[in-house]
Amino acid sequence: MQTPTDVAAQANGWCDSGGWLAWARCCPSPNVGPRPDGTLVDLIVIHSISLPPGCYGGPEVEQLFTNQLDWDAHPYFQAIRGLKVSSHFFVRRDGELLQFVALGARAWHAGDSRWRGRDNCNNHSVGIELEGLEGDHFEPAQYATLARLCAAIATHLPIAHIAGHEHIAPGRKHDPGAGFDWAALQRALGWAETCFPPFDRPAHVGT
Ligand SMILES: [Zn+2]
User: CA-to-CA distance for 207 and 193, rounded, in angstroms?
Assistant: First the structure.
């Protein structure tokens, strides 16, 4: 039976109050767990991934996040054999959106991490993977989907911050890297600059 909370969520593009997005392709991952009771989920973490690295458009990332990747299909996969990971979302180069984990659940994307004084960011964050190579550029269609997605997530959770994996695990992780345009995302969302990690901003003329 639908609750008023479900109806409110549906008005913002969600299937119901459980945190599955109606306009994302639903690919449930077994790599998921409960968030600790009472956790304030206020962080979005941006990642980049492609499998094999630099190859776009294939099913491998979806297969990895659903434990269906054939580890023997490519030499690179030996380096990640047995890895069990997930993210809430994956944005393909053409802007297609896949969802693996409901917002209410804990995905396995951050690893050892810390942001704004809080450890273990998987507990209190939503993970978004962009199809790409760390350090390389991302497509306009991906920024469009990402901005729409972040805005939708903020209707469901009290999001206060966005950071890259490189920011919450400095030295250990480097994604999404220098090719990700934080200023473009900030402009598209219209959120305060304090919501974002420090990034280079164009100098203001005359100030
Ligand atoms: Zn990452």
Answer: 18
